[in-house]
Amino acid sequence: MKRKMKDNVTVSIESSSGNVDSVISMNWLELF
Length: 32
Description:
Layout: H1 2-15, H2 20-31
């Protein structure tokens, strides 16, 4: 499960390399 979440974060970053900070923030909010 942890690996899947990491993959999702990686995919999101690759899809929105211009908004890396926003993508990471959104994913962290979902994880916690």
